[in-house]
Amino acid sequence: MRLFLIRHGQTTANVARELDTALPGAPLTGLGREQAASLPNRLRQERFDGIWCSRAQRAQDTAGALATGVGQAPQVMPGLHEIQAGELEMSADRGDWLAYIRLLERWIRGDLRPAVPGGESGADAVARFDADIAVIQEQAPEQAAIVSHGAMIRLWTATRAVDADRDFVIDHPLRNTGYVVLDGNLADGFSLESWHGELPPETMDTARGVACIP
User: Fold this and answer.
1) How many angstroms separate the Cα of 157 from the Cα of each of 37, 150, 152, 185?
2) Dihedral sign, CA of 83, 86, 87, 91?
3) Does 24 sit behind a cis peptide bond, omega within 30 degrees of 0 on the bond before it?
4) What SMART domains is this protein classified in (predicted)?
5) Residue 47: strand, helix, or coil
6) Can you give the three-state secondary structure of 163-177, one letter per residue?
């Protein structure tokens, strides 16, 4: 099974640099809608057997734009949402962002035990994402488009892609509507086929991607 893990378009919370992880979350901006509308053309050479997305409004709207272009109705799943920020929710404080980023880096390096204060652990996030991937896998698609979130995509890729370079994943956060392509299955693991849409170096924060999640 080939998976395209696509980050949603830009939101008002992205612009305000707020840790927006609760549902339904902030809406897409005008630019975010344009980014989402560009996906069918950017992925025009691909043929998807289905489109799945998280419950967040930004993910549903991004998936809807892709669906309009490829003729597939998106299916909303319970566990594809962003890693929950707990007590840090909607904070625009740099210290809170750094705390969230440092936890993400720790999870990506393999220690899934710590949790965001009042939120979830890396293990919790990976388990719920796994559960949805298992449901999608049962539908036997050869190629699936999954619209999710920046931190979640990076964590799950680092955890489930057997050949993922964890330092690369840390150093290459996804821009809005960037995507990762993996091939494989849950039983045997996935291989990381390609990584599209990381932030250009001149826009990167010194905190390794503070500007580009969730």
Assistant:
1) 25, 11, 8, 12
2) positive
3) yes
4) PGAM
5) coil
6) CCCHHHHHHCCEEEE
CA geometry: angle 193, 186, 120, nearest 5 deg: 95
How many domains does one find in the chain? 1
Check which CATH number belongs to the domain holding 138 and give it.
3.40.50.1240
Cis amide bond preceding 214, omega within 30: yes
Q: Is residue 28 very low, low, confident or very high in pLDDT (cuts 50, 70, 90)? A: very high
Q: What is the 3-state secondary structure (H, E, C) of 63-95?
A: HHHHHHHHCCCEEECCCCCCCCCHHHCCCCCHH
Give the whole-angstrom CA distance, residue 200 versus residue 72: 31
CA pair distance 130, 79, nearest whole angstrom: 8
For the chain, the 3-state helix, strand and coil shares in percent, each to the nearest 5, are 40, 20, 35
Distance CA 185, CA 137 (A): 8
Q: How confident is the model at residue 198 (pLDDT cuts 50, 70, 90)?
A: low
Measure the CA–CA gap between 97 and 102, rounded to whole angstroms.
Answer: 9
CB 213, CB 173: distance < 8 Å: yes
Q: For residue 165, report the phi and psi dihedrals to the nearest 5 degrees.
A: -85, 110
What's the pLDDT tens digit per position in 69-97?
878 899 999 999 999 999 999 999 999 99
- Residue 193 amino acid letter: E
Query: Which residues constitute the domain of residue 165?
Result: 2-212
Residue 205 in this model has a pLDDT that exceeds 70:
no
